[in-house]
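Quick one, probably user error.
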């Protein structure tokens, strides 16, 4: 299941997203939103960590499971984004778009992988 990181779009996008989440975390801490910052950093960086872990999956079902966990973390991150926008501040559209792209990619990869199990 291992692939070259340079050629793997989902790995690249999720890593960049995690870097952007670290920047968002700093802004949340500056706004004294410590609990939300903690939640966002955990779920937002977990997406890429699970995608990375999926690259070393021992089987196709393991690969799908790990990507499913990444998708759940992405959905949770989207929830925190909605909460931040409702109560704290407007998020950068780039960040929201990155997350939507990652979610779309994960859904496509998971669905196509399920067809070949």
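Nope, works fine. Designed sequence:
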């Amino acid at each position: 299941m291992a692939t070259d990181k340079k050629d793997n779009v989902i790995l690249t996008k999720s890593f960049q997203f995690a870097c952007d989440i670290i920047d968002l975390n700093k802004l949340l801490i500056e706004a004294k939103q410590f609990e939300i910052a903690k939640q966002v950093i955990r779920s937002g960086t977990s997406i890429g960590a699970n995608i990375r872990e999926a690259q070393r999956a021992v089987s196709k079902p393991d690969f799908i499971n790990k990507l499913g966990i990444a998708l759940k973390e992405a959905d949770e991150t989207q929830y925190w984004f909605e909460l931040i926008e409702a109560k704290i501040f407007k998020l950068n559209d780039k960040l929201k778009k990155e997350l939507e792209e990652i979610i779309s990619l994960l859904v496509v990869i998971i669905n196509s992988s399920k067809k070949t199990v």
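The chain has one domain: 5-115.
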